Amino acid sequence: MVVVLLLGGGARESALAAALLRTEGTKLVVLAPNANPQLQAWAHHFHKGAVTDPALATSLAADHGVELAVIGPEAPLGAGVSDELRKAGIAVVGPSKRAAQVELSKSFMRNLLDRHKVPGRVAHGVFDDPMRAAEHIHALGGRVAVKPLGLTGGKGVKVSGDQLPTEADAVAYATDVIREGIGGAHQVLIEEQLIGEEFSLQVLTDGTAVVPTPAVQDHKRAEEGDLGPNTGGMGSYSAPDHLLPFLQRSEYDAALAALQGVVDGLRTDRTPFQGILYGQFMLTTDGPRIIEFNARFGDPEAMNVLPLLRGDFVAVCRAIAKGGLRDVVPSFASEATVCKYVVPNGYGYTSDSGHPVHVDERAIAQTGALLYYAAVDRREGGLFTSASRTLGLVGTGPSIAIAEQVAAEALRHVHGKVTYRKDIGTSAAIAARVAHMQALRQGGAPPGQPRADFKSSRPDGGPAEKPKA
Ligand code: AMP
Ligand code: GLY
Prior knowledge:
Layout: E1 2-7, H1 11-21, E2 26-32, H2 37-42, E3 45-48, H3 54-64, E4 68-71, H4 75-78, H5 81-87, E5 91-93, H6 101-104, H7 106-115, E6 124-127, H8 130-139, E7 144-148, E8 158-159, H9 167-180, E9 188-192, E10 197-205, E11 210-212, E12 217-218, E13 221-223, E14 227-230, E15 235-238, H10 249-268, E16 275-284, E17 287-294, H11 301-305, E18 309-310, H12 313-322, E19 331-332, E20 336-344, E21 356-359, H13 361-367, E22 370-373, E23 376-379, E24 382-385, E25 391-397, H14 400-411, E26 414-416, E27 418-419, H15 427-441
Parallel strand pairs: 1-2, 1-4, 2-3, 4-5
Antiparallel strand pairs: 6-9, 7-8, 7-9, 10-11, 10-16, 12-15, 13-14, 15-20, 16-17, 18-19, 20-25, 20-27, 21-24, 21-26, 22-25, 23-24
Helix pairs in contact: 3-5, 8-9, 13-14
The structure holds adenosine monophosphate and glycine.
């Protein structure tokens, strides 16, 4: 028997719980901010409370004889929860507060990459003088990403041709970031604009050994065709060969080398990273380039890789926490996955939340799809939406197209004031992404047009028109 403390209450944590419970004899103690109905049902003990409270986490661990803790989100890492649990003698999947700065501090991350010469770095400059920032933007041809140095919950990043239509807009935003201290620091980070296709690669690591997982493509935009505001992620897919339809083996390996470089750099700096390191990359014609790192599984990306994991996940977690991951390397099934998030109407703008949502769990199970609840509360009278994402549905199968059909079939059994992106994982959307990358490789796409235009692909789901050479 092993008692595992799991922190977090989203669909990522539901997927983590399901993976942990596949190991016989696992008992879960869950600390979550919301009454996630699956975590409530699956936990031996469920505690609704702040995941950022180290004293609460350590007292729960002591009360229930916890041996291993798995930390889902990043906030507890920043609050020192992993450090306090380790001090209490518990094996923890989740890096120290110091090592988690790879996600929590852009300056820490850029500095680490530069010192250890990690491949895939992006040219950047940090400025506290609006004039110097303007000169730098001009020197980069006005094609930049402008980022506050502090944390803005993903809302502070603006990119040329997207939220910043002109060079003057980029200069104006950089000036605002400096003058108004957006993100908490009167400094702005200016990067060259990367053009290509984004993807995520997550690795499990004990601080030395690195175990890769299948590459995933997330969809951050609220609306179909990659329109609307950025969100926490509307859904994601992965392919049976663990690459992506636009991503070649050598490019996957280059991204993996960047992640290994970060793990090695942190170990050399005496801040070893034990947990899940998530790299967000832009595949450019020069190979994958680093956008950011997360010190945890992605959400939704956890829902793509965890259902494919074969082997004893509890043993893998113990090895991440204590070392020896090299000896318990898990494998991942050669299947495709498509995850679609169901979200409250208006999510990404202003969520219309607090409404009942009806989920026919039995009918969903019959489709073969996996269901993971997220920010939904079980109250008297059933399940109710909150402002954040409601639930994830994951189809698996021998191809992305089949996995997409399974997820789409399952979506018919969820009703309420909720919505989702139909296009994620469809053949038309994927063909458009492949065509976009192909056009870039052939030098055909104009700069400043990073997003694939789904309307250019055939409505029957066939391959997109071949781009002009
Ligand atoms: P972040 O908050 O760092 O994840 O950035 C949000 C989004 O901005 C990313 O998902 C990318 O689509 C985009 N982005 C960030 N940095 C760059 C860059 N240097 N070039 C182009 N797009 C970027
Ligand atoms: N899917 C993006 C993230 O988890 O941050």
